[in-house]
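Adenylate kinase
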Amino acid sequence: MRIVLVGPPGAGKGTQGELVAERLNVPRIVVGDLLRAHIADGTALGERARAYVDRGELVPDHLVVGIVEQELEPHTSGFVLDGFPRSVIQARLLDRFLRARAAELDVALHFDVEDAVLASRLSARERADDTPEVIATRIGGFRAAEEALLEHYRGRVVELDAVGEVDEVFERLLDGLREALIAA
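Predicted structure tokens:
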């Protein structure tokens, strides 16, 4: 099963993504981790991305897509993709990559969490960069792209109430995936 996780920072994508990847026996591909690893390892893509990161800018789509495609190449039969796509442009590029390999995305799992809950979760992490202003900016940045991204994936979106205990949310997630498989 090929799944992308769609949700703002603090929605629980990492926790639930890890659980569902383990359950489905597919890799969980965390794009932020990949990007940091490429930068740390000094790969060609990492060096190009570092220039943007060092300036505090977002890494351009073409570089992020290159990193994602390298990682996905051996896993087109199944994966959980966390942190990508973040825009319709990235979603279209992912679709094109998969189609070229006779594959397509099965599910866009949308993590539904209110902004106040997100802010509380992110504040509780006590990371130096999680100030109220930065948190609001990160949530706002996601919300600005969310509607268009969900529209792009219409017909493949599984809505997930991502508030509650980890095991409760995971059961709802599995129920949503089962329903999606039955509908397909």
